Amino acid sequence: MINKEVFIGFGVALLATIFGFYLYVELISTEEFETTLDKIISENLLGKIIGLAAIPNLLVFYVFLKRKQDLRAKGVIVACFVLALLIMLAQFL
User: Fold this and answer.
1) Please, what's the b/e burial string for 28-44 (b: 16 or more CB within 10 A of its CB; e: otherwise)?
2) Packing angle of the helix pair 56-66, 4-28 (nearest 10 deg)
């Protein structure tokens, strides 16, 4: 059974990555979100942008370590590995 604290860390890391992706797309593009997303997919840039969007996970990881929440920090690391697999899939498909 997956520990509840690891699952919380995993979920927070995924939310931080989604927020980072949204923030990156909104700051970089002058067009609508959907149009920009279509361009990203058509130009095969999804993996690179997911990698940049995962940067807020560093902050989340640091906060969990400072608060001595090691299991939640472990969940962030697991989420980073899952994101790395998604990036690899996005680059090769």
Assistant:
1) eeeeeeeebbeebeeee
2) 150
